[in-house]
Amino acid sequence: MSSARTRGLWIDGQVTDAAEGGTFPTFNPATGQPICEVARADAADVERAVEAAGRAGEHWRARSGTERGRILHRAAELMRTHRDELAELEALDGGKPIAETPEADVDSGADCLEYFAGQAASLQGEYQPLDGGFFYTRPEPLGVCAGIGAWNYPLQIACWKTAPALAAGNTMIFKPAELTPLSALRLAELFREAGLPDGVFNVVNGEAETGQALTRHPGIAKVSLTGEAGTGKKIMKDAADTLKTVTLELGGKSPLIIFDDADLDNAVSGALLGNFYTQGEICTNGTRVFVHESIHDDFMERLVQRTRRLKIGDPLDPDTDVGALISQGHLEHVLGYIEKGRAEGARLVFGGERAPVNGCEGGAFVQPTIFTDCTDDMTIVREEIFGPVMSVLRFRDEAEVLERANDTDYGLASGVFTSDLTRAHRMADNLEAGICWINHYNITPIEMPFGGVKQSGLGKENSRRALEFYTRLKSVFVATSDVEAPY
Ligand code: NAD
């Protein structure tokens, strides 16, 4: 069995070692020190998980939606009971400020379980009378689903994928990102305490190979990934051999557009939230901030003034606003982009350096960074950085900014600050993105569909729509008259 220093896999309601005994370390990004070893699942472990999830599914799908919902509800309550502990775990394993994690990670995960607990009983088909009969449809579970997570919101991602899957009668094998393997294991324990039957939720930690073993497995009906666009393409190719359905929540380079009639303080708040929350490690971030030329200087002054107040520090310190990036490797990646920004002629107005933090000497800290005078062709304006690096661009009129905002392969999110409602809706109509926030940025209520277009993904999470991606529709025709055969 797993030792105290090694966290096992979670298969069929039990902690278990990996079949080959492989492990890998997980690190505290704020110190660079290992937290513990984690069991690494290989193909044999994935096989065990698929068998367990398949067996469990036969009973789970037969329960009423109300019963399934009741268990999800209990799990949400347990998440709230263990709010502080879960928030600390996310801060420890992910480098995220403890000032954020109780709400952004734990509450949002619990909200999701609660929302789909309520939806579980509401899955309905259609009915229509026809000549000589009628038909009805049955939304049926897909079977065993795999969830593959990114490292920026580990617990929330686990909930966003698992809650709709379970509500619809599926079972789940979840693979957290290898950099943040811990919180999904704790979630599994809470599910068990809530009464979830063994095998309905399983956790197999590991790297890309573990993900591949899931994606290629013929016993798995669906894969939902949160990750990079490149990973999404690989997964779609791998899933093609067994014609699995996929939901892909991928990267972005979203525009945030601030018109001259915007409430400037709200717009600055939106830009800060959309670039520096969670150290900028958020897929929907509005990293291309288009500011109308007539308000550019005023906007920059207020922006820099407020950015200066952000405290970079130990993620476990409640006063910290900006924690550690996920790893030293990611820090180098972000610093590389900052260097490119400088080299390609963007004007650095704030940050741009590593940030030393007392007591966290081995940590991956970088200052929130603001460039202005950016142009559309610069690397920092075109590529996803996934760190606290904001690029400000000036614009003159609506048609011009719209064309420039849409000039990207990505299409995850967008934001518009203006007091002209007609213009706001016209922009929402024309922006090529899965989400458009008007006079706000980066809020993701569970009731609202979430997902990208273009190379930012396929499918939706959250809202009732998510259930469509975890069900398949069966049409049942019933004859009420004799069969007229011409033979
Ligand atoms: P990543 O693509 O490197 O990894 C994501 C997950 O996929 C990990 O669990 C990884 O082990 C697994 N994986 C990698 N290669 C695989 C393969 N070939 N087959 C199966 N699984 C594989 O992404 P990351 O670095 O963990 O996260 C950052 C990225 O995630 C950014 O691009 C970010 O925009 C994106 N993201 C998107 C959303 C969204 O909802 N749209 C949310 C958060 C993060």
Structural description of this entry:
This protein is of the alpha/beta class and 487 residues long. Helix content is 38%, strand content 20%. The protein has 15 helices and 21 strands. It has helices at 43-60, 65-81, 83-94, 101-120, 154-167, 182-193, 208-216, 229-240, 264-276, 296-308, 328-343, 379-382, 398-406, 421-430, 465-468, and strands at residues 6-7, 9-11, 14-16, 23-27, 34-39, 127-130, 133-141, 144-148, 171-175, 201-203, 222-226, 245-249, 255-258, 288-292, 347-350, 369-372, 389-395, 415-417, 437-438, 457-458, 471-479. The strands form 5 sheets. The protein has a 7-stranded mixed sheet with strand order 15-16-17-14-13-18-19, with helices on both faces. Strands 10-9-8-11-12-20 form a 6-stranded mixed sheet, with helices on both faces. The protein has a 3-stranded mixed sheet with strand order 1-5-4, with no helix packed on it. Helix 2 (65-81) packs antiparallel against helix 4 (101-120) and helix 2 (65-81) crosses helix 6 (182-193). The longest helix is centred in the first third of the chain and has 20 residues, at 101-120. The radius of gyration is 24 Å and the shape is globular. The N and C termini lie far apart (68 Å). The site of nicotinamide-adenine-dinucleotide (NAD) has 30 residues, from helix 7, strand 11 and helix 8.
